[in-house]
Amino acid sequence: MGQINPQINNEWREILSEEFQKPYFESLKDFLVEEKKQFIIYPPGPKIFEAFNKTPFSSVKVVILGQDPYHGYGQAHGLCFSVPANVDFPPSLQNILKELESDLGIHYPKSGDLTSWAEQGVLLINATLTVRANQAGSHQGKGWEQFTDSVISTLSLNRPSLVFILWGKYAQNKKTLIDQHKHLVLEAPHPSPLSVYRGFFGCRHFSATNNWLQQKGLKPINW
To answer: Which residue among the candidates 30, 68, 103, 149 is catalytic per the annotation?
Structure first.
């Protein structure tokens, strides 16, 4: 990807090889190379595909779908809703961790880094994988959505008994890509302060996910 230089796990590279060759992806690469000449882009190039690197295709058990990377300095590191250790928790992440505490009694953590979830099979992807610094939504409509839609469809088709967690209308619009006869789809309002009291708090998606995994004979997530 020119000067962007992302690295992606070999398993995903093979599964998505046709996607990487499509004209829209070539255009996306060109767009990102030009953007990088003029603007700071988040997350840093090597972290663009971090969700895929931390959760290989054959390891995926759960998919949590975000919309955009964080656009503030030092926040985005390639996993949706997550921030590196020692970075202040954004409001949506605070609310996710409050719900986790309420649902499963897991104490509010010191770090907002969700890498441990990813390493257990929770694919933490944003629909758009990059953003211009301090400009929310600035890379929407450039091709990333087509790419991540293909990821969701490929997982739905080729993996058994996944849990798809869709928070907010944007994520819920992806439901049409998922075979609900095979997979569990959990929906709730977005965890942002604007909508968290409309049903995100109390959704108990963490316990519901683990119940499903255990029913399927799979190891639950240690959230």
So the answer is: 68
